[in-house]
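User: For a reading group we're discussing how well predicted structures match intuition. Take histidine kinase. Before you show the prediction, I'll give you the sequence so everyone sees exactly what went in.
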Amino acid sequence: MRIRAWLRTGVRAMVDGLFATGLALLNVPVLMLWLAGLVLSPMPLLGTDLLAVATTVVRWRANLERRLGARAGIPIRRPYLPPPDRAEQGTRTWFRWIITDPATWRDMAWLLPGALVSIGLGLIIIAITVYGLVGVGLLPLWLHLGDIWFGYGLYWPTSDYGEAWLSLPQGLVILVAGLTVAPLLRTTDVLFARLFLAPTNAAELRLRVAHLTTTRADAIDAQAAELRRIERDLHDGAQARMVAVGMTIGLAERLVRRDPAAALKLLAEARATSTAALVDLRHLVRGIHPPVLAERGLEGAVQALALSLPVPTEVISHLPGRLDTPVESAVYFAVAEAFANVVRHSHARSAWVTIGHTGGVLRVAVGDDGVGCADPDRGTGLHGLERRLNAFDGTMAVSSPPGGPTIVTMEVPCALSSPKI
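Assistant: Thanks. Here is the predicted 3D structure of histidine kinase, as structure tokens, for the group to look at:
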């Protein structure tokens, strides 16, 4: 399993390095396009339109690099200020938005050095890997078919077929070294890009304010939707049953003197209806705050969820105390939603969840060995999960390469309210 994971990581880093090298070749044309748009921007219509197109291309290129960083396990947030409405604010305001956004100039500053670093590191990754592949298979084949005598590794030039075939073990060593070094070089490339493309402290503050504004609105909308759901469930469920109970008891009161048997039958129906109403109320309460969560905390509630899944699920948890009730409830329902995604979409044979609290941050990871390719943009419930966490300033990251494994990592800054005794 470890060898397979190492091989998958190395191959993915090599492919990403090749892709990053190809994209880096676009940096210079993109830079020239943006400079042309900036120079021609004072011209009406043509200049502003060209600058708009150039800015879109630059940010498209920078966002591609951020996506490659996320694939390498180093997420890079987008630092751009929200754009003004060009139709309402006018061309001058829109132009000022582009020029005064520090992220625009940081993108521009990255294009040329980023291209040099990506091409250099990418060529190293490709050269080592290709040279290893040549030693593993191509050199002996060429020597046998074409009598082309040239050297490899320690033997240069090769003097006979014996030395030629010694390229095989050397090629294996070089290939292993290439697959081992490739993730490190990709990480170096992404870290260099992050120096330019990640938000500055001021941009982080602006993003933080925008994030809190958005999450506050989402929390209000979610609360209103939850209240409407509770009202609907009460109206259609327990309230309707209690009205039926009252009507049945009223009929029984009228019949109790002249037809006691019918009155008893109606009272039995009223009792059955009241029992059903009680069940509805219990289900409604369980949907608001499950009793198992109140009694056993997040660990016990997640273990109960895992036992109810059709997929064998391992729970690894260490929480030295209880969380605040709102955080506990939000994380519980987020884990439940992640479990639902595992059952519906992953085709997994097994799953796992880890829960821990360090440095004032609750970290929960839900993983499975399914088919992978989980994408929040495809409507698999991950957006809803993220909205739950946003209300508590939490974050969610998804790692789901083709073939798996899929790992959904959730982090929520919070404190433990009471230690376990």
